[in-house]
Specification:
The chain contains 10 helices and 6 strands. The protein has about 230 residues and is α/β, with parallel strands linked by helices. Strands 3-2-1-4-5-6 form a 6-stranded parallel beta sheet, with helices on both faces. Helix 6 links the parallel strand 2 and strand 3. Helix 1 crosses helix 4 and helix 5 runs parallel beside helix 10. The longest helix has 18 residues.
């Protein structure tokens, strides 16, 4: 067993481990343009950070009066996203360092994301993170996406860990709320630093209010070690 005992770490993917939001935005913009929707901007995209792709498309479908079924929209967005993701997805450097530190100590890790399984696998394979984090759960594999706790509880089940022994890393309020609902500790690293004042982020056990610019792998690692009984 790791020197961290039974502690397991569950990562959100997009905006937490990797800066994939620009690719998701561009994939959504291209998709909507196919259905005659123009003017979909970055600001509107940020309203959906932390929400599953399916739920995002359900909302946009209704908002813009798109007749196509959600399954068609989902397939289209995933196709656009995979094209973009394969050309390059940036891993936040301190997050990569954090993953490598945990891996070296034998800490069990998982990714629990609102993205499709194909999108998650493409990013993990393309960035090399999959070699460190083999356990993956997509929101498509559980009944409800974040802020419901389902994806985190399923990750814990696959890791063989009790929820109380899990620490979640998240960048968005739906994910923080999901972690709390799952009975897990949470480290919040807001993707959009200006949102750090949201009361939901205040419920995190550790908050990096400046987002990725404040996150340091060694400091987070030392904090985790302090949790060991």
């Amino acid at each position: 067993m790791s020197e961290f005992g039974a502690l397991s770490v569950i990562f959100d993917l997009d905006g937490t481990l990797v800066d994939s939001e620009p690719n998701y935005y561009e994939a959504g913009r291209r998709l909507l343009a196919q259905y005659g929707v123009t003017g979909f901007g970055w600001e509107r995209h940020t309203d959906f950070i932390g929400i599953s792709t399916r739920e995002t498309l359900e909302t946009l479908r209704e908002e813009y009066g798109i007749d196509a079924p959600v399954a068609e929209l989902l397939a289209g967005k995933n196709r656009h996203y995979l094209e973009l993701a394969r050309t390059g997805t940036e891993v936040f450097p301190q997050m990569r360092a954090f993953v490598e530190l945990l891996h070296s100590d034998g800490v069990a890790m998982a990714v629990a994301s609102g993205s499709s399984r194909a999108a998650i696998d493409a990013v993990l394979d393309g960035t090399g993170l999959g070699a460190f984090i083999p356990t993956v759960v997509s929101a498509d594999e559980v009944p409800r996406g974040k802020p419901a706790p389902d994806v985190f509880l399923e990750a814990a089940r696959r890791l063989g860990a009790a929820p109380a022994d899990c620490v979640v890393l998240e960048d968005a309020t739906p994910g923080v709320a999901a972690a709390r609902a799952a009975g897990m500790r949470c480290v919040a690293v807001p993707y959009i630093a200006a949102t750090a004042v949201d009361p939901v982020f205040a419920s995190a056990d550790l908050l990096y209010a400046g987002g990725q610019r404040d996150f340091r792998a060694r400091a987070a690692y030392d904090w985790l070690r302090s949790l060991k009984p």
